[in-house]
Each structure stands twice: as structure tokens, then as C-alpha cells.
Amino acid sequence: MDVNAAVAAAAAIVGVLTGAIAVLAFRWSEREQKRPTRTSLHTDPVLPPGVDTVLSVLRSSAVVLDESDAVVKASSAAYALGLVRGGKLAVEPMILMARDTRRDGEIRQVELDLPRRGTGRGEALAVSARVAPLGSRLVLLLVEDLTEARRIEAVRRDFVANVSHELKTPVGALSLLSEAVMGASEEPEAVERFAGRMQIEATRLTNLVQELIDLSRVQNDDPLEDAEPVRVDELAAEAIDRCRHQAGTKQITMAAGGTADLSIWGNRGQLAAALGNLVENAVNYSPARTRVGIAARRVTAPGGDLIEIAVTDQGLGISDKDKERVFERFYRVDPARSRATGGTGLGLAIVKHVAASHGGEVTVWSSEGQGSTFTLRLPEAGEARARATGDQGPGLDEDDETGQTDGTTTVSSPYEPFSAPEVLP
């Protein structure tokens, strides 16, 4: 009997303990469910009906705050911009705006520059923040990223300013020279001298307008709409012929060499303009009695074979600080020399756009006192055409049915383009 009583008492104690543990576990579960989490911040039921759906389709970053400035809901973009961290709004000016709006109900908007997350360079993130009341207790914050828009506006503003300046120079010179011609009407020698200067300024103005048109065209047109296989040796011959007069005046020898029978897939006019600009620059910035070379070769790359066209000169070279900016619009390494040669500062910008629109790139190697090498790297005709049409075949040229890749090399820089050249006086 005593044993049975002891067992019954032990069972009763175990039952009481089990019940107590169950009650504690239930209360702990309820407490944990009431604790806000990152998921609950996105789906808190206190939002008015329909607001969650509307905020999910907005392009702006959205944050909803309650009376204690706690985040009720935040979009993924808000987290990506670094506006919300640890369930709290991390931008103090926006918190102050939210409090003011909660107090008086007025809608507020301000533009701010915020530090960019994940960079140590202190780059600013330009945003436009708009705060409005949402119901009686909540505040809605909408943030628009203006960084890219500001960059584009700055580029446009600089471009317009540069164009205005560049156009004003030859137009002003023509105006002054015309007055000089009128004043020297009885002096044939003076009239002839001023007329010659007018021709030079008119040519400069014509070149500038034409290059502005070319730059606009390569930026707006899709070069692959009218793409075709373009032979590199034909492009080189056109570029050399274009600069033959300038080279002859300075006794500069032009040479073409490299691997024969290479082709690029793209817009013939744009490719000819790009290579012509590189050769023209090489001739204009080279001393007399030097030489300029064009060479092409096939190089291997992970995405398919590339055609590399290098234009090398024996000029003064480019400093390291200038090499990073030579492809900017209107940038000139030597402004005085550029004006003397009629340069507009747009030639290399056109080359850069043509290369990018054809799926390639342009690079420069240069050493002061040793000359420069500008290199165009573009997809080979067969490879580029296969990618453009979705063909998964070997990507052979029309002229190469065997798939031979003789002459394939790896990329190196600088590279000597004068292997077995054809010298063209």
C-alpha cells in the first residue's frame, strides 16, 4: 500500500510540473509572436487596407513609420539604399521630417546627399525624400534615387557648355576675319592672307559640326541593325587613304600589317569612322618623318575570338593622368596643339561609343617620349553574328569554312603592329 501511495504521489507531482511547463511554454510562445521581426515589419496588420499593395508597385523606396518612429513597413529598395537598418530609419533628417509631419499633418519634401554604403570614397547618394501622413497614426516616407539623373544632367550641361565654347571660337574668328577683309579691300596680299585664315576656321567649324552629328548618330543608332561582315584590311586601307594628304605633308610613313583576311561584324560606316579617327589622331600628333602603323590580329577570349586592331605612332606620348581622360568629349591633351591641327576633342569619344555599341572596347598604351598605341578589340564576324542570331554553331566567317584559327595569340600590351607591313607612302 505504501508503495502504491508513493507512486501515486510521484505521478501527481509529475503531472503538476508538466502542466506548469506547458503554461509557461504557451505564454513564452505568445510573447515571441508579439515581438516584432523583420518579416513582421513588412506585413504589420496596422496598415490601412490596400496600402501594402500600392507600396509594392511604387518605384520609389517606401518606409512607413508609427508614432514612435518605428518602421512598420519598408520596401526592399529602402534596405538596399541603407535607409532602414535594424528595423529603424537610419537617416536623421528624414526622422525629423516625419516627426514634423506627424505633428502638423503637412507634406514635406527635401533633397539630401547621403553617404553611399559599402564604399570608402565618401561618394554621395543624391535622393529626394517626401513625407506625408498616412491615416491618423502613421507617416509615409517615399525616397527617390536621383544619383543617375544628376550625373546625366551634369554630363548634358558640360556638353552644352563645351559645344557652345567650341562653336563660338571659329564663328568669332570668322567674324573678325571678315571685318579684316573688308578693311583691307585695297590690299590684295592682306585679303589673300585673311581669306586663307577664313578657310581654316570654316574647315574647323565644318569638322566640329560633322563630328557632333557623328557622335549623336553613334549614340542613338543601333549599329547591329544594318550589320554585315566588314574586312579589317579594307577598313585599314580607307583609314590610310583618308589621312594620306596630312601624312604626306609631314613626311610620315603609314604602314598596314598583321594577320590577313580578318572580318568584324558591325556597321561599316561606324567602324570606318572609328578607325579613321584613330589614324588621323596618330598622324596629327606625330612629329615629321616618323611613321604610323595599323595592325590586326585574332586573339582568344572567354566569350569567343576577338579581332584586335592597333594603331601605333611615334609621337610625344600621353601622361598617366591624361590617359584616363582622353576618351572624354572635348578633352585635349594639348589644347594649343589640337587647335593648330584642327582637332575638336570628339574623335576619341566617337571611337569609344562605336567600340561599346559593337560589343568591344578601346584601350590606350602610351609612354611619354615613346609614342602611343590605341587598340580596338571587337568580336570577330563569325562569333558576333552567331551571338546576334542565336546560332550556337562554330561561328565561322564566310571566307573561312574550315574553322582554322591560324595566327591566334593572347592579348599583350603594348604590342608591335609592324610585323611584315605593307608600306604605303
Helix/strand layout:
Layout: H1 2-34, H2 38-42, H3 51-57, E1 61-65, E2 71-74, H4 76-80, E3 84-85, E4 88-89, H5 92-104, E5 108-115, E6 124-134, E7 138-145, H6 147-183, H7 188-220, E8 228-231, H8 232-242, H9 244-249, E9 253-258, E10 263-266, H10 268-284, E11 291-299, E12 306-312, H11 320-323, H12 335-341, H13 347-357, E13 361-367, E14 371-379, H14 381-389, E15 422-424
Parallel strand pairs: 9-11
Antiparallel strand pairs: 1-2, 1-7, 3-4, 5-6, 6-7, 8-10, 9-15, 11-12, 12-14, 13-14
Helix pairs in contact: 6-7, 7-13, 8-10, 10-13
Task: Describe the overall structure.
By secondary structure, the protein is α+β, with helices and mostly antiparallel strands. It is 47% helix and 21% strand. The protein is built from 14 helices and 15 strands. The strands form 4 sheets. The chain has a 6-stranded mixed β-sheet with strand order 13-14-12-11-9-15. It has a 5-stranded antiparallel β-sheet with strand order 2-1-7-6-5, with helices on both faces. Strands 3-4 form a two-stranded antiparallel ribbon. Helix 6 (147-183) runs antiparallel to helix 7 (188-220) and helix 10 runs antiparallel to helix 13 (347-357). The longest helix is centred in the middle third of the chain and has 37 residues, at 147-183. The radius of gyration is 35 Å and the shape is elongated. The N and C termini lie far apart (126 Å). The relative contact order is 0.08. Residues 36-45 and 391-425 have low confidence and may be disordered.
